[in-house]
Amino acid sequence: MPIHEYRCPECGVFELLLRMGTATRESACPGCGTPARRLVSAPGLSRAGTPAARLIERTERTASRPDVVAAPPPDPRKGARTSGNPLHRRLPRP
Ligand SMILES: [Zn+2]
């Protein structure tokens, strides 16, 4: 749900969490009850759940809490020497 900002003439700016399309131009201030006008601001739509948001969250999380692993990552040099082709096993060794 997006956050909508209202400005109360007595108390100042306050935020309301309202469903999309249900925000009115005026809303009663929760502090004093005075009608407060809605402010035009950038939409604070949630990006949670999108692949980009998941990647950002995971990257930020690994900075302070890295993933626990049981073994070091495989050596990339070893992987380059082995081949899946059985004929390569017959080749002369250095
Ligand atoms: Zn107020």
What does this structure look like?
- With 94 residues, this protein is of the alpha+beta class.
- The protein has a domain at 1-65.
- Helices cover 21% and strands 20% of the residues.
- The chain has helices at residues 51-64, 76-81; strands spanning 3-8, 12-17, 26-28, 35-38.
- The N and C termini lie far apart (66 Å).
- The mean pLDDT is 83.
- The site of zinc ion has 7 residues, from loops.
Q: How can the largest sheet be summarized? A: 4 strands, antiparallel
Poorly predicted segments: none
Strand content: 15-25%
Radius of gyration: 29 Å
> What sort of overall outline do the alpha carbons produce when their principal axes are compared?
rod-shaped
Oligomer: single chain
Structural class: alpha+beta
Would you report the number of β strands? 4
Write the layout of secondary structure elements.
Layout: E1 3-8, E2 12-17, E3 26-28, E4 35-38, H1 51-64, H2 76-81
Antiparallel strand pairs: 1-2, 1-4, 3-4
The protein binds zinc ion.
Give structural attributes.
94 residues; alpha+beta; four-stranded antiparallel beta sheet; 2 helices; 4 strands; rod-shaped; binds zinc ion
Summary, kept brief:
This protein has 94 residues and is of the alpha+beta class.
